[in-house]
């Protein structure tokens, strides 16, 4: 098979070909690495490539499969991972200057689980420094570019993961999400991103940004790819006290695409307030395609959402600044200017502010719980604005200049504050750029949001379009 064809395929397409030995993991890994080399100069997604180890890993996977030891969907699949997830004896920089030589003595739990599943690791991917930003315009390692338009941001902080999956320089990836850092780049780059329930996936061996808001999750080409990846990484971990010991669903089995009788909640006053016209149109059309398949729509009220942005900001600023406090005292000039300012800001909220934010958070969880007594999922745009130009701190919202950070995390932050699962799925293009529709669900009910996302995906809102660089690198 032509390597061009291979790099464009999803895991769900590649896995059967690997299992029945039509293609070998070595052939696939070489195709991905060559394509990564060919696109890297333009996209700048990789921090480091593990060519030698990847080929060795692919040979081992091939041997196991030839000998009848096929381990499942991700066996022999090449994957690059966000650079705040630790690999034993490898550098994890967090895309920072301060940690540029940091080597972990152990694998992150999610990496250990992926190794057991037979994943082939091709390298580490760029991120916004310390995951504290949404542009991935990194002062130390350069900006990551959006494969759909090289002038635009890919979103962040998992921008390297979003861009690499979209351009085909990795088949799938893991990102982290504290205020939207999986879903923002997934929406901006036209891929699927899942922030599962807080406590569903271990964060052990992942450098924290704000411990009570952080999540690790799949960034993939399709919903089934995300379901298969979640299947591998989900579960209780004694090394991470925030994980919750609840049974893990068989996510792939539960994806039927049947949404008959699904009740979709829509909250107009927050999640459809101040939204780019082109985005709103696509998201409402996406909801309508599910209604056409038998789903119903119900409007819901979530009163505490009006305070969510403040609570998210106070919580993330305070926790992040606590983590970086000593480096801020001893080597402040080694931080990028943008995040240094945020860490300085994070020293300002008082204990009273932080605790009030937690009270709002508790009330917000109760409001969402109440909404989920009436509906199965909530739907809204992932982002209210389109990706802006690299280097610009302002976004365009229906002709008005608005603050980029405030706006881009407006619809994703509530998922982190409540810990509820949220999935971003592509729902079409506006001005040539991909748009994501976000689906939120009940705690630990990832199966329902994945199935809903799959039903939308089956209507082919992207019309099989791929970035030019994926096809013509």
TrEMBL record:
Record key words, sorted: Transferase
Domain spans labelled Amidase: 27-450
Key word Transferase present: yes
UniProt xrefs under InterPro entries: Amidase, Amidase_CS, Amidase_dom, AS_sf
Coiled-coil region list: none
Gene3D superfamilies: Amidase signature (AS) domain
MF GO annotations: transferase activity
Pfam families for this protein: Amidase
Family: Belongs to the amidase family.
UniProt protein name: Aspartyl/glutamyl-tRNA(Asn/Gln) amidotransferase subunit A
Species this chain originates from: Pseudogracilibacillus auburnensis
């Amino acid at each position: 098979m032509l390597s061009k064809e291979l790099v464009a395929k999803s895991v769900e397409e590649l896995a059967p070909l690997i299992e029945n030995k039509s293609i070998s993991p070595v052939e696939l890994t070489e195709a991905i690495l060559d394509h990564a080399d060919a696109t890297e100069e333009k996209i700048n997604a990789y921090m480091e490539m593990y060519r030698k180890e990847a080929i060795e890993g692919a040979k081992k996977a091939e041997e196991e499969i030839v000998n009848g030891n096929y381990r499942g969907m991700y066996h022999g699949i090449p994957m690059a991972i966000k650079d705040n997830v630790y690999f034993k004896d490898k550098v994890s920089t967090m895309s920072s200057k301060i940690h540029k030589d940091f080597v972990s003595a152990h694998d992150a739990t999610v990496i250990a689980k992926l190794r057991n599943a037979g994943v082939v690791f091709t390298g580490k991917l760029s991120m916004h420094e310390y995951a504290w930003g949404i542009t991935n315009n990194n002062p130390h390692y350069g900006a990551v570019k959006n494969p759909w338009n090289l002038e635009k941001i890919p979103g962040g902080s998992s921008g390297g993961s979003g861009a690499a999956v979209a351009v085909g320089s990795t088949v799938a990836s893991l990102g982290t999400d504290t205020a939207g850092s999986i879903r923002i780049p997934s929406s901006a780059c036209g891929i699927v991103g899942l922030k599962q329930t807080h406590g569903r996936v271990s964060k052990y061996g992942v450098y924290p940004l704000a411990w009570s808001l952080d999540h690790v999750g799949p960034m993939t080409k399709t919903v089934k790819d995300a379901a298969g990846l979640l299947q591998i990484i989900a579960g209780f971990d004694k090394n991470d006290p925030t994980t919750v010991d609840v049974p893990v669903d068989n996510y792939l089995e539960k994806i039927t695409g049947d949404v008959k009788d699904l009740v979709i909640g829509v909250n107009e006053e927050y999640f459809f307030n101040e939204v780019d016209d082109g985005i709103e149109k696509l998201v409402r059309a996406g909801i309508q395609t599910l209604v056409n398949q038998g789903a119903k729509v119900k409007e819901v009220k979530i009163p505490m959402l009006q305070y969510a942005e403040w609570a998210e900001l106070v919580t993330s600023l305070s926790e992040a600044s606590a983590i970086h406090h000593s480096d801020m005292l001893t080597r402040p000039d080694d931080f990028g200017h943008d995040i240094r300012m945020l860490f300085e800001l994070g020293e300002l909220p008082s204990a009273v502010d932080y605790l009030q934010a937690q009270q709002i958070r508790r009330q917000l969880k109760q409001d969402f719980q109440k909404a989920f007594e009436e509906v199965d999922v909530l739907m809204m745009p992932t982002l209210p604005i389109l990706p802006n130009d690299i280097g610009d701190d302002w976004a365009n919202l229906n002709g008005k200049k608005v603050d980029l950070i405030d706006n881009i995390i407006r619809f994703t932050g509530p998922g982190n504050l409540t810990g509820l699962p949220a999935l971003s799925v592509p729902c079409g293009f506006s001005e040539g750029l991909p748009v994501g529709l976000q689906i939120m669900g009940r705690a630990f009910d990832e199966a329902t949001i994945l199935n809903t996302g799959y039903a939308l995906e089956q209507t082919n809102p992207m019309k099989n379009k791929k970035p030019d660089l994926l096809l013509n690198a």
